[in-house]
Amino acid sequence: MNLGAFSISLNVKDIQKSKSFYETLGFQVLGGDITQNWLILKNEGCVIGLFQGMFEKNILTFNPGWNQNAENLDSFSDIRDLQKQLKEKGIKLLTEADESSKGPASFTIEDPDGNPILVDQHV
Predict the structure, then answer these.
(1) What are the 10-residue block averages of pLDDT along the chain, 123 residues in total?
(2) Residue 43's CB: how many other CB atoms inside 10 A?
(3) What is the DSSP letter of 120?
(4) Topology classification of domain 5-121
(5) Among 52, 50, 44, 76, which Cα is nearest to 63's?
(6) Phi-psi region of 8 (alpha: psi -120 to 50; beta: other; left: phi over 0)
(7) What is the dihedral angle through the alpha carbons of 52, 55, 57, 61, rounded to the nearest 10 degrees?
(8) Torsion angle, CA of 27/28/31/32, rounded to 10 degrees?
(9) Is the N or C terminus of the chain more exposed, i.e. has fewer CB atoms within 10 Å?
(10) What pLDDT is recorded for position 63?
(11) Per residue in 92-115, is it b (16+ CB within 10 Å) or e — as a string?
């Protein structure tokens, strides 16, 4: 099962302080909008999202249709196919993508320890 590009979305208290901290570790801004309290940073193959005031917990994030540079892929597993496979394996979905839709969609699941996992397709 290919879930796409991986990143971790961090719930931060002060996005400016977090941005400075991760830049000290060698991360550079890849995208986002700090005035809207969210940024995507990258260091080599590692991608993190900083989100202030948008959700309660840190979230593991997968993006079908993207590579690690947030560039669209020509070929990928559609989110609705991934969702169907997980349902068939008995994974409980917290939110679901509309299976009759096409294009961008998302669903969420949790791992056994309650860690949220977002699968978010942008294409």
Answers:
(1) 96 98 98 97 96 96 95 96 97 97 97 96 95
(2) 14
(3) E
(4) 2,3-Dihydroxybiphenyl 1,2-Dioxygenase; domain 1 (3.10.180)
(5) 76
(6) beta
(7) -90
(8) 70
(9) N
(10) 96
(11) eeeeebeeeeeeebbbebeeeeee
Q: Which residues pair with 7 in a beta bridge?
A: 61
- Interatomic CA distance for residues 40 and 28, integer angstroms: 8
Give the chain's length. 123
Among 9, 4, 116, smallest CA distance to 63 is for: 4
- Domain positions in the chain are 5-121
Cα–Cα dist 68/46, whole Å: 8
Rounded to whole angstroms, the Cα distance separating 120 from 55 reads: 15
Report the DSSP beta bridge partners of residue 120: 106
- List phi, psi (to 5°) of 32: 100, -170
Beta bridge partners of 28: 42
